[in-house]
Task: structure prediction
Amino acid sequence: METQLADFIRDTAAGREAQAILRRCVHCGFCNATCPTYQLLGDELDGPRGRIYQIKQVLEGSEPTVKTLLHLDRCLNCRACETTCPSGVDYTHLLDIGRAVVEKRVPRRSGEALLRRMLRSWLPRPGWFAATLRLARLVRPVLPKFLKARIPPAVSSAVNAGSGHSRRWIVLAGCVQPALYPNINAAARRVLDRLGIDLIEAPGAGCCGALRHHLNDVDGGKKDARRNISAWWPLLNAGAEGVVITASGCGAHVLDYAHQMQDDTDYADQARQVTEVTRDISMLITAEAKSLSALLSRCPPLPETSRKLAFHSPCTLQHGLRVRGAVETILVAAGYELTPVEDAHLCCGSAGTYSILQPEIAGQLKRDKLKALMAHAPLAIASANVGCIAHLQDDAGVPVMHWIELIDQRLSLSS
Result:
């Protein structure tokens, strides 16, 4: 795609990156075939090709409008278009550049701007979020039904895992997951303990930075990244093999640290090395498949009444991390029968804060996803990202949980 960037961005790092990305696009439109918002709304401007054209026009000097901002805001960042694109267009980073320019030029309505500031300030702080959630749980019985459904009951986080293994991996606690679903990392610890691996948390680490980054607070996201890198670095130097992440949304973002920090003279090299040793939990478990198989062989067979399971692969797992089939293989090895899921490549509508900022689109995507997941009457739904789990649990009618919890349950029965 030929471009003539405007003076304000032409000779900048962002301009050079945007120019390279735009040149790869052949405007074939294959991306629209897998874009959730284009499929739902049928508007070219709400598909990847249309958004690329809008960003191109702005970078060439056209003045963006409220409508431009709306179409960019409606993007879920699901990255399905990148999986589909035959030319390898780096849509995600182009969208980051375009959003940054448009948001500077198009003021948001005061209420919308305030909500975004609140989300940027509140969600990435685990202590604040946990305190709010505790209060919400206290008043949950008297809340309206639609609010009550969004507040999950408290769950146990008992670890009961050993320690002292020679192998150690750093686990990211994250921001909302410790309060919403503390058993996810606890289950990961127990499973990896059986595989001879200790999980350790780094004091001082916190939110991966994705929440702020995708709310157009790029500097805040980089600050989170620097904090985490600084917290992990001493442990990596002391022998930890890498960073393992149980939320695929966080994993996809951490694996982008090298790109985000490439111009940071103090952190670029460390960010690159952290990226090289970061793994989604499914990747680490897959690498230990032989040991896991031996453990599973000592487990009693699953009763037929509890085998049927639907797996929802988060966009960040299949499109962001490009991990496909790994979790399914592990679950089948554990004795589960996975039901087919139509349009499994489409987003569920969670997408970080998207379900809060774009509730109508997110709600329709959730209904479509649950219809596909429940088509063959599974007894439960497994996923790999905390946001998807919370989003789907509202209306699923069956338990929705992280797949590592199911493996933990199976291994707890081993002889």
Notes: The mean pLDDT is 93. The longest helix spans residues 218-237. The two ends are 61 Å apart (CA to CA). The domain at 292-411 is CATH 3.40.50.1860 (Rossmann fold).
